[in-house]
């Protein structure tokens, strides 16, 4: 089976031109079939602020109201996505920038407004892999923005980690797939020290102990879910994207 | 030879949700291979105003400075493009939204800054048709935003009429191609009356007489250039996109 790397790059790297350039250089050097999934980081928040759109929050979580959806469609689907595609091309990697609406790659379901109405947020229904495989077979790099659609004409906001994990899992039937969550930390940390291997037992222990918190929890849940379905998973620094082993590796 | 329709939709239709819906409904009903090229109309201008970006004009022509490029990359490549793709899908047409950077479809050259520096504006170098043909052969509708790239990592702003004419001409080697410029008028008008057929002689006569002015001049120049290369060309109302004959037809 051919191998495939599904690489998610975090928002704080995208926010920083120098870090993003560094990452894209290394990413372009990664051999073999690969897919990039990006967030939009604080660019969308800043753009929203400049447009006078007040963040609408419930329990610390942002609501995707109609105005916010407009901003993320612009920033994720346009600004970030197209600039990454243009840069990758200049680095010798032919890329295609896509949202989940394009080629109907990711149909999603608008989240139930009860108990909390998160607005235009989509939960992935399925991943249509035919065109992704077609691109990969032709040495084209799909660059996915974290946008899906409801098949009724609406774009939806979907978490980039979720898309990365869903895409990696779906393609693991055709490829020996590796999922890399790249961000600005060396991996999962405990008291300033990198944890190089993590299994479910250790994860639960550290979560219960309050060592693993916040955004790392859904990321690890998604990682372990992909691992169970046969995907190799690591959480690592954006500077280590081209390395064979690095960061925190999830194990059974 | 298979037939192909390359359809350009004007900015004033995109500005108006009702007109755009009407157009997309009819567009989705057009049988056979088709490509949609859209502008961004005043949405980009309004977004620029909301962001406090002052239009930078020379001789009545807008300069694409770095801030303006950011806005049009967001609006054309993200907001307008992805919403059209999602809507087309809901109307039964599988679509893929692309800029000229995606799949390196449209490499362009940044315009010479002398005599006038128009900023991040690109002149089309070539159209790579392989992926466009691949999509069309699989009943996928390419939806092109008027963005190109310089192959050195920069997105460029390119006129949508130019892209439409270049794409139609390039694909006319593989398809019997028709180019439709759709907008909010019935066609080329003289004194409130539609001109149903136009050849080069009549065009020059009306241009010299001041009947044909402004934006219609480059549109007709592009149309006649495509016609010379074997493309069937008409300029018509967005309401007539699905009609066999309508508006002003260019003839030799």
TrEMBL record, chains A, B:
Name a GO molecular-function annotation.
acetylglutamate kinase activity
Identify the species of origin: Gracilimonas sediminicola
Q: What is its EC number?
A: 2.7.2.8
Ranges annotated as spanning the membrane = none
Instruction: Kindly give the Pfam families that the UniProt entry links to this protein.
Output: AA_kinase
Alphabetized UniProt keyword annotations: Amino-acid biosynthesis, Arginine biosynthesis, ATP-binding, Cytoplasm, Kinase, Nucleotide-binding, Transferase
What this protein catalyses is: N-acetyl-L-glutamate + ATP = N-acetyl-L-glutamyl 5-phosphate + ADP
Its name, as the record gives it, is: Acetylglutamate kinase
